[in-house]
Amino acid sequence: MSEESVPSAPTAYPARLEVDYTVDRNRVTTLFRLVLVIPIAIVYGVLTAGATTTTYEETGKTMTTTSGGIVAGLFLATLLMILFRQRYPRWWFDFARELTRFATRIGAYFVLLTDEYPSTVDEQKVHLDIDYPTVERDLNRWLPLVKWFLAIPHYIVLFFLSVGAFFVVIFAWFAVLFTGHYPRGLFDFVVGVGRWGLRVNAYAFLLVTDQYPPFSLD
Question: Which residues pair with 54 in a beta bridge?
Answer without folding.
Answer: 64
